[in-house]
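Complex record, two chains
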Amino acid sequence: MIFSKVNRQARQLNAQEEKRTAIYRSLIRREAEIGGTLFGPVQKGGRREFFCLDETTWVWHEEWTDNSGQKQIRNTRYDMRPTGVLKAQNGQGYQMVSLEEARHLQAAIREYGRKVSAIIYGSTI
Amino acid sequence: MKNYRPYTLDTDNLEHSLSDSELRGKVYESRASHVRRALSVAENSTAITINSAVGRAGLGQNALSSSYKPEEPKPVEISEKTRLDAARVQQTHEFSDLLDRETPRQDQYTHELTELGKKTAATDPTDPLSVAAMQAAVEEAFANVDDADTFKDTLELV
């Protein structure tokens, strides 16, 4: 009797956790779409996403087709450290971002905050 | 033989299921909070990077250039009024210094005069410069004068 009750509640909790994860991921995907519109038009057949992965990590995912018809992918990860911003591309080593890139990133993140706040979260951000 | 504690589960403390709308609201709130904190962290980190890069760029463009020459310090422009005020202040200071130096001398002079007066009062009557000596000399002269005053008769005659 008690085991069936526990099992039922455990299944409910698992389902709830899965739902929670799915909703959270769908929000990130929606943010990534909005973030992808911040840097101008995307090449036909290409794809761009820019989003906040967690409190200290921002991701820029770019897909495009080069002149030889080869599909290219570049993942840029920005890590926000107390000493500044580090970036790593396609899993390579970290490097400090340049002055110009830091300015662009700062502007992009501010615009990201404004847009996702207005479109998704209302005035909560 | 070991005594095993019976396994118990407090089912009352298990989280109650949330409705879909409640769950969605909670997740939205949670994600918004994460993004809000991420924006704040990113603002600080990018600002630090920009400030340090601007500092490096400013130093590098000047100091690393082969034609870089440190600027000569420019003289500070001083208006005529400021110059006059400074001179007046300087004069006042000099006057103050002068007073500080002269006052002890004056006191010394007064002291010397006082000492001289004391010394004069206690002077020997034979001292020709002494007032007492002069008075004594006059009294002595009158005491020794005889009746044959040459001038007395003459005067009476006149």
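Note: DSSP finds two helices and five strands in chain A.
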